[in-house]
Specification:
Elements lengths: L1 H31 L2 H16 L8 H22 L7 H4 L4 H37 L13 H29 L10
């Protein structure tokens, strides 16, 4: 009976990982497309400024918003692909189970609590901006700031979900059933 329960929990963990990573991958692909408007905005600004001598009032700020959104929402996909920077001097010498333990400990003790606090603050920050009609104040364009803040908060929620998926992967490794993308 215990083996059956453990197997069903493992199957459930695999399903949760697949759902989260599917969301992360799809969102990461969509957010990667923001490079196109970023390049177009920068190109237009350079052309307007140096060819016509008429710089825009919106290009710099829009570029910052697109870059921030791209970076923060893309963080979850980077984590899913194990692409974040790590000091590998000791980590690479650890066994697979030891790595899983280190990852799980880091995620549970440090990263998830940090993300929980940050998510709470970011959602409060975004909702306050929405209710007050706050504007950026950084340029003459002065756009509403809440859509950008909502995207940042969404990016951190997506990152938190991916951290949960990584915790489940580490747990599966510790239970001698490592998760692999082949099982998708």
């Amino acid at each position: 009976m215990f083996v059956g329960i453990l197997f069903s929990k493992r199957a459930m963990m695999h399903s949760i990982i697949r759902v989260i990573e599917g969301l992360t991958t799809r969102t990461g692909f969509l957010i990667s497309l923001t490079i196109i408007p970023l390049v177009l905005t920068a190109t237009y600004e350079v052309f307007a400024r140096y060819v016509f001598g008429a710089p825009t009032i919106w290009a710099y700020e829009l570029g910052c918003m697109i870059t921030g959104t791209h970076f923060l929402i893309g963080a979850a996909m980077t984590l899913a692909r194990d692409g974040h920077v790590r000091i590998d001097i000791l980590y690479d010498r650890l066994s697979l189970k030891s790595r899983a333990f280190v990852n799980l400990a880091f995620y549970v003790v440090l990263f998830l609590p940090f993300l929980a606090l940050l998510n709470d603050a970011l959602w409060h920050y975004a909702i306050t901006a929405f209710h007050s009609g706050e504007r950026s104040g950084n340029s003459a364009w002065n756009p509403l700031i809440w859509p950008f803040r909502m995207l940042l908060a969404f990016g951190f929620i997506l990152l938190a979900l991916q951290v949960i998926a990584e915790c489940l992967k580490s747990l599966l490794t510790l239970l001698n059933r490592p998760y692999s993308d082949v099982e998708r």
